[in-house]
Amino acid sequence: MSSTRRGLLRALGIAGAGGVVVLAGCTDGESTERSSASAVKSTTRTTAVTDSETAATTTESTTSSESGVLGEPDAETELATVYRDVPFRDTEDGRLRLDYYRPRDAEGRVPLVVHVHGGAWAFGSKGGGRFRRVPLSAGAAFASVGYRLSGTASYPKPVRDVVAAMAWCREHAAALGVDPERVGLTGESAGGHLSTLVAAAPDVPNLRPAGVSARAARASCVVSVSGVYDFTVEGDGGVGGTLVRRFLGCEDRECEPQRTQASPVTHLDSGDPPALLYHGTADRVVAYEQAERYVAAAEDAGMAVSLVTGEGGGHVTPYAGDWGERYERRQRTFLREHLF
Length: 340
Description:
globular; 10 helices; ten-stranded mixed β-sheet; 27% helix; Rossmann fold
């Protein structure tokens, strides 16, 4: 295996996998942050959700009663009280869990950031890693959620799992100490795709579990790192490969409906929540053009969007290089504008 291919596999967190998503990286791009003219603090569409609106079916249900929903803390860190492996949904493929981080010294109900991990839709796990620090230090709670990977379930089931996690957190907002009207989404790589798709398409019934309302799926804002936003592009900005087909659950000749429906850019409109993106111009796993296409579609739709470009940056490197401090500062400001 070549060193370049090994680097791509490591970036995806899938060393040793039989197939890989390969997108040619762009060699140049903007070196400054781009913001749409409409990127101002906007009224969110998130509203309180009742228990009946988040009821699930018998085979795919939320779990746990309100009493002791979190259990005992597993750890205390400088920034948070940690509850690991909290069950939030039973599916025909097994039980899904999340890790919940309650910010230290929090008083009253705080905003919540729901994190969706990367890994080419086939690998990776919850936890949040370095993506926890900025939301927690800003005073928001953080829930890193598990979802069914493509070896178990294909599109749209992983999308529904993310929505189910949002609905569960809202249903148990009192126990978590969060405000159900202030829920943001964040994710990297495949998690960036899932986060932006959920944020853009809460009204699409096929992307929600049975019994979960559009109100439960709505986000106040979304932050995406090195995400995939358009499966329909051909050439250097396109998305292809075994892992994508496995996620979409189809072969190339049959994939057109899924490629369109699963692309966040397909669903963007002026009512969507504000978005903050990071992307490196030298990303050889997900091309920089993907971020450019999202920004163009968002601006055409009249929604608020900002892009922080990592000049020469690779895949999922938001805190490295000269752009790292700028991205962190912009993310902190973005969360304060739209969640606090």
